[in-house]
Protein backbone atom coordinates (compact mmCIF):
# COMPACT_ATOMS: atom_id res chain seq x y z
CA UNK A 1 0.00 0.00 0.00
CA UNK A 2 1.38 3.40 -0.95
CA UNK A 3 2.24 5.97 1.71
CA UNK A 4 -0.37 8.36 0.31
CA UNK A 5 -3.06 5.71 0.64
CA UNK A 6 -2.04 4.92 4.25
CA UNK A 7 -2.18 8.63 5.11
CA UNK A 8 -5.63 8.97 3.56
CA UNK A 9 -6.88 5.94 5.47
CA UNK A 10 -5.42 7.30 8.73
CA UNK A 11 -7.05 10.70 8.09
CA UNK A 12 -10.41 9.00 7.48
CA UNK A 13 -10.03 6.96 10.66
CA UNK A 14 -9.13 10.05 12.69
CA UNK A 15 -12.09 11.96 11.27
CA UNK A 16 -14.50 9.16 12.17
CA UNK A 17 -12.98 8.78 15.64
CA UNK A 18 -13.31 12.53 16.25
CA UNK A 19 -16.97 12.38 15.28
CA UNK A 20 -17.65 9.46 17.61
CA UNK A 21 -15.70 11.15 20.42
CA UNK A 22 -17.75 14.33 19.97
CA UNK A 23 -21.02 12.38 20.00
CA UNK A 24 -19.95 10.57 23.17
CA UNK A 25 -18.90 13.85 24.79
CA UNK A 26 -22.29 15.39 24.01
CA UNK A 27 -24.21 12.37 25.31
CA UNK A 28 -22.20 12.28 28.51
CA UNK A 29 -22.64 16.01 29.03
CA UNK A 30 -26.41 15.67 28.56
CA UNK A 31 -26.35 12.99 31.28
CA UNK A 32 -24.46 15.32 33.61
CA UNK A 33 -21.05 13.71 33.16
CA UNK A 34 -17.82 15.24 31.96
CA UNK A 35 -14.76 13.21 31.07
CA UNK A 36 -11.93 15.74 31.22
CA UNK A 37 -9.39 13.65 29.34
CA UNK A 38 -11.65 11.90 26.84
CA UNK A 39 -9.50 11.57 23.72
CA UNK A 40 -8.65 9.56 20.67
CA UNK A 41 -5.74 7.14 21.00
CA UNK A 42 -3.55 8.38 18.13
CA UNK A 43 -1.55 5.17 17.78
CA UNK A 44 -4.68 3.14 17.10
CA UNK A 45 -5.63 5.39 14.18
CA UNK A 46 -2.77 4.30 11.96
CA UNK A 47 -3.12 0.52 12.05
CA UNK A 48 -5.60 -1.97 10.71
CA UNK A 49 -7.33 -2.47 14.07
CA UNK A 50 -10.27 -0.22 14.96
CA UNK A 51 -9.48 3.20 16.39
CA UNK A 52 -9.75 3.52 20.16
CA UNK A 53 -11.22 6.28 22.28
CA UNK A 54 -9.70 6.62 25.73
CA UNK A 55 -12.50 7.24 28.18
CA UNK A 56 -10.18 9.14 30.49
CA UNK A 57 -8.93 9.30 33.96
CA UNK A 58 -11.17 11.05 36.42
CA UNK A 59 -11.46 12.15 40.00
CA UNK A 60 -13.69 10.38 42.50
CA UNK A 61 -16.62 12.75 42.07
CA UNK A 62 -16.66 12.17 38.32
CA UNK A 63 -16.47 8.41 38.90
CA UNK A 64 -19.47 8.68 41.22
CA UNK A 65 -21.42 10.67 38.63
CA UNK A 66 -20.67 8.05 35.98
CA UNK A 67 -21.76 5.28 38.31
CA UNK A 68 -24.99 7.08 39.15
CA UNK A 69 -25.76 7.71 35.48
CA UNK A 70 -25.17 4.06 34.61
CA UNK A 71 -27.23 2.68 37.47
CA UNK A 72 -30.31 4.88 37.22
CA UNK A 73 -33.57 2.97 37.12
CA UNK A 74 -34.94 3.52 33.56
CA UNK A 75 -38.54 3.10 34.69
Summarize the structure in short:
This protein is mainly alpha-helical.
Properties at a glance:
elongated; about 80 residues; about 55% helix; mainly alpha; two-stranded antiparallel sheet
What layout of secondary structure does this protein have?
Blueprint: H1 3-30, E1 39-40, E2 53-54, H2 60-71
- The count of strands amounts to 2
Task: Briefly note the structural class of the backbone.
Answer: mainly alpha
Residue share in β-strands: 5-15%
**Count of DSSP-assigned helices:** 2
Overall geometry comes to: elongated
What does this structure look like?
This protein has helices at 3-30, 60-71; strands at residues 39-40, 53-54. With 75 residues, it is mainly alpha-helical. The protein has a two-stranded antiparallel ribbon. The model has no long low-confidence stretch (mean pLDDT 84).
